[in-house]
Design goal:
2 helices; flat
Length: 66
């Protein structure tokens, strides 16, 4: 491997690390929201939103974009 290949590989690793850190922060925020819903008995609301989202996805997969 050439020196420039190591630099490119190093940058890719840094980019991947940054993306994983961003994803971790987002997942921690989602978990925090779920915990708050759970503490206040609101898991039914989350389930309802998930059901609505899945129905929308299924609709657009079946009928395509309108």
């Amino acid at each position: 491997m050439s020196y420039s290949s190591f630099i490119l590989a190093g940058q890719t690793v840094l980019d991947n690390k940054k993306e994983l850190e961003d994803l971790k922060a987002k997942l921690e925020a989602i978990l925090s929201i779920v915990v708050k819903y759970k503490e206040h008995g609101g898991l039914g609301a989350i389930n309802h939103r998930i059901e609505n989202f899945c129905q929308c996805v299924a609709f657009f997969m079946f009928f395509g974009h309108i």
